[in-house]
Here is the input.
Amino acid sequence: MWQLYQFPLCPFSRKVRLLLGEKGIGYEPVRELPWQRRDEFLDLNPTGQVPVMVDTERGVTLIDSSVICEFFEETVSKNAMLNGTATDRAEIRRLVLWFDNHFFGEITAPLLQERMLKRIVYKQSPDGQVLRSAMKAAVSHLDYIDYLLDHRTWLAGSTMSLADLAAAAQISIADYLGGIDWKGHEEAKGWYLRMKSRPSFRPLLAERMEGIPPPADYDKLDL
Here is the structure.
């Protein structure tokens, strides 16, 4: 069976887990805290980053969420998440990169640094200015999601795709860390509630990072 090395607040691991859930692929989650720099994990991935998927029986190791998702898109036909025409797939990939790079860099990464790493690794207090900047950036990104959903049923088109999984993975971490304000973003909120209601999402909502509780409405299916 596949093993997925990840930790609860890794958005890229969440993207992979959502895809695995949508495709019905079984796996064993393995808790890995990358900042611990375990030798055994560095042997799997010298960069020390999660997610990493391993099938020891077949001797296969997959590194990086994009690589993992593309691998299962190519090998498991059920519930394609890179679907449609070549133009459709290009738009899906564009939005995956948008959320993996821009949303992560401007919102998820600062929130993780200030509200997770500073607390459990460095034993420091968060920087309020950094948190305010991340939450302001989140508003702009929710505006963009509203715009997309004004023209589409899902983020990249008429059907759910990897773009929705990548976006929901990032937003769910930002939401866990108290960085999302849904006021004035009805389109984005409705889309996110649809994502939260999917069976693939339920295991993620049940997970907690020790010492870092989410907001009270984090796992509720209404906001």
